[in-house]
Every structure is written in C-alpha cells, then in structure tokens.
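Homework help board

Subject: predicted structure for assignment chain

Our instructor gave us this sequence and asked us to write out the predicted structure in token form, then describe one feature. I got the tokens but I'm not sure how to describe them. Can anyone check?
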Amino acid sequence: MRLRTARAVYAVAVLVLVLGCWELVKLVVPEGGVSIGDQRILPRTGDGALPHVWAVVTVLGERDGSGTVGVTLVRTAGFTLGLALLALLIGTVVGVLLAVVMQRFAFVERGLLPYIIVSQTVPLIALAPLVAGWGGKIVIAGEPWRPWMSIAVIASYLAFFPVAVGMLRGLQAPSKASVELLHSYSASWWETLLHLRLPAAVPHLLPALRLAAAASVIGAVVAEISTGTAGGIGRQIIVFSQQATGDASRLYAAVLAAALLGVVVTAVVGVAELALRRYSRPVGAARPAGGDR
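My token output:
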C-alpha cells in the first residue's frame, strides 16, 4: 500500500514538474523563439505554437459542432479505444500462438524469428495504404471490409511483436531440470506447456503486454491518420491542427487525450496483472516471508 502511494505521489510530482517547465519556457523564451543566424535553437512560444496550460484545459468547454471540444474528444477517444483494445487482443493471440509454435519447433524459431524482428522495420505510414487497399477486396460472410477493420489489423501489427518475443522468452525460462522432472512423470508436451511453461511465461508476458498496449494505441492513431478514417482521435488531431491558426489549444488537448488513451489501455493490462499476480514471480524467485508454501 505504501509503495502504491509513493508511486502515485511520484507520478503527480513528475506531472507538476513538466507543467512547470512548460510555463517557464513560455515565460522566458520570446514568442518568436531564439535563432542564431538562420538556425532556430529555441522554439516559438506564442499561443499558436505553445499555449498556456490553463488554455488547454479551458478549451475543453468551448463549442465544437453540436457539443463541446471535451465531448468531441471523449467521443473520438472512445472510438479509438475500442479499436486499440481489439488490436491488443488480436496481437496478443497471434503473438502467443507464434511463441508457442516457435518454442515447440526449434526450426520454426530459427526461420521465423528473424522475419518477425524485421517486420517491425516497415513504417506504418507505408503499410496502412496497402492494408486498406487489400482489405477493400475482402468480403467476410457477405459483409464488405470496413475501414475500422484495417485500423485494427494495422495496430495489431505493432502489438503482436513484444508479445511474441516476451512470450517466447518466458516459455523457454524453465530450467532443464524442471522439464526433465515432468518428463520423468510421463508428462506430455501439452501437459508440460500447461503446468510449467505457461505459468513460467507470465512474468515475461506482463511487461510485453504493457508494451503492446502502448503500441496498439500508437498504431490505431497512426492508422486513422494514414487511412483518413474519421471518427477517431487520430483524425481529430488532424482536424484541430488545421484549425490551429493563432491558438493551438485544441490541438494540444487532442494530443493529450491520445496520451491519456494510452494510460487507459495500459490500465486494462493492469487488471490482467491482478488476475495473474499468483504467477507474477519469475522462475526461481524467492517467496516472500509468510507467503504460501
């Protein structure tokens, strides 16, 4: 309990420090920035480039269409949240299945793992139009491919990588003696997987899921921008950037909403961590004093 309180206080302190630095830069640096010759070394600090912190907060109450800016951000963030969670689910399933197959067959790991790593070097901005174009030719059970499906696939492309790598490392974590012990009991590969390798993989899987959660949000936002799909926070950032002629408050509010979206998805992973906390200790870690025997 004390550790959680310390973490919360630390997070709030860091936020206050960042906001204080924000306002200090706006106070000290001239509105046009600082340049040496033709090279700008400090950014512009006018309202069109760096609005006040309170301006970003108060803009949430301004009118935007039929509602307010805050309502618009909540609605668009909710759309992106659903796609990010779907992408996280797809990426987790694909990553876990790939890890299990690679652990079971060494030749699959040797042949597939390098391509999994190389796959992450492909920029999303180049991949998104291809996925959207291919998806437009797909019909599932008589239903045409929807733009949101392309976004989910693109985001899951980022999410599956940390899960696959982390899960594979976890499945390989049990010692040779532990594996041989189960073999001495005539345990099959499937029984060894269920009773030894999967529990041992949990401490490696949980950090990978946190990375995948952040990646799914980034992928969803970038995919919305790249495919031009309306309704999400990514597209709303573009809309507000086009409106930011003399005041960038709305743009910063949208960017901060996207950042908070990442926090929400990561919190969902935190719920999974609570459900799996009995397996959260690495293999061979000492049990706490007074713990279960």
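Reply (TA_rk): Your tokens look well-formed. For the description, you could write something like this. The chain is about 70% helix and 5% strand. That's the kind of observation they're looking for.
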